[in-house]
């Protein structure tokens, strides 16, 4: 029997790494598909599920990303993007999450239907704001540059995000890590830092620890998404501990992308034992068919974590969240006074 001991009720429940464009409800895909006469492969939830969700490990990250096909296909206009952003807020609230950082790539969301990335950002920001007014949950937005498309498209994404710089707290780099290295995006991230944004980078998921070093030293990341290959470089792990570089771990996602062969092979426990500020997150909940409770209560034990490890991951999430000290105090006061 699963017990709540894997989640400490005295610590905020936080998700720092969730792609809102990887969390589109199956019911919403069907609804938007009907509204816009889209050629969906099936027209009921259970029939649609295998076309969206991952049941077996994929052959790599890009194969996993291909599962986004129907999620982005229904982003037919800005109203649809607004709805998807709003529903992400409601979903997090229903999960009992106290604080969440939702991230999105304007170009990735715009590409399938030839939308303007500027319009995407506006719709997402407004959808998050609307949801935040209705639900009792703290939300921050992280913009993504999708490196898959190269630095020129990334520049268009960056400009779209900067148009709403006051509503975004950080910039991320995601996508095809193996073929689009972080060195190509140094100027993009310099501009992001000049705008006052924090930096988190997907690194060490598809490549070795050199990608993580580049993200930290070249892009000045204070957090790393996944960071799996850090386990190969003890010097890097020591550096990350010393400089308090956070890790956004996503257990199920890493198994499904074949970044690790199985849960027990995941380095999260070793990261926590080493004193790294590693955390537990969902990544793309609809595609992975999970929520944050699953990651704590099912995935974490499967990965060899004890309840004490999971509680430490919760504390780490609060410590490395892109919140001011005052906002962290407010979060604790609001829910745990």
CATH topology: TIM Barrel
Instruction: Give the SSE order as H and E letters.
Output: EHHHHHEHHEHEHEHEHEHHEHHHH
Main beta-sheet strand count, sense and barrel state: 8 strands, parallel
What is the number of independent domains? 1
Which regions contain 5 or more consecutive residues with pLDDT less than 50? none
Tell me, briefly, the overall form.
Answer: globular
Distance between the termini: 30 Å
Helix amount:
40-55%
Structure summary, number of beta strands = 8
| DSSP helical segment count | 17
CATH superfamily (homologous) name: Metal-dependent hydrolases
Radius of gyration: 19 Å
From the 3D coordinates, which CATH architecture would you assign?
Alpha-Beta Barrel
The CATH class assignment is Alpha Beta
The fraction of residues in strands falls at 5-15%
Strand order of the largest sheet: 1-2-3-4-5-6-7-8
What would you note in describing this structure?
Strands 1-2-3-4-5-6-7-8 form an 8-stranded parallel β-sheet. Helix 11 (234-242) links the parallel strand 6 and strand 7 (246-249). The model has no long low-confidence stretch (mean pLDDT 95). The chain has a single domain, classed as TIM Barrel (Alpha-Beta Barrel), CATH 3.20.20. The chain has helices spanning 26-35, 45-52, 61-65, 69-73, 78-94, 106-111, 117-134, 151-162, 186-194, 209-217, 234-242, 251-256, 268-273, 285-288, 292-302, 307-320, 325-336; strands spanning 14-19, 99-104, 138-146, 170-174, 198-203, 223-226, 246-249, 277-280. The chain contains 17 helices and 8 strands. It is globular.
